[in-house]
Amino acid sequence: MIELIRTETCTECAAVKTQLDEMGVEYSVTTVNGASDDVPMIRDGDQVVPRDEIKRYLAELGHPVDEWEHFREDTEYVNGAA
Q: How many CA atoms lie within 13 A of 47 on its CB side?
C-alpha cells in the first residue's frame, strides 16, 4: 500500500494528498515531526520516493488509474448501466 509521509503544516504534502484522493488510490498517511525539506515522501512497498521524484511518480501512477477508469466506463456501457 502507498504511504504518504508528511508534516502537519506542509502545503506541498496537502497537494500530494489531494492528487492521491483524486486518483482514488488506496493510501495511508503518516504525519511526522521534523524538517519540512524531507517531505512529502512516499513509500510504496520497498520503494521510497523522495520529494524531488514525487511528481514523476504520481504521473506514472496516474496512467494505470486512467486506463482502469476507461475500462470500467466501457464495462458499464456494455452491461447497460450507462
A: 9
**Residue 64 binned pLDDT confidence (cut-offs 50, 70, 90):** low
Q: Which carries the bigger pLDDT value, residue 52 or residue 61?
A: 52
Burial of residue 49 (CB within 10 Å: 0-12, 13-18, 19+) is buried
Q: How confident is the model at residue 20 (pLDDT cuts 50, 70, 90)?
A: very high
**Torsion sign, CA atoms 57, 69, 31, 16:** positive
Whether cis (ω within 30° of 0) applies to the bond prior to 64 is no
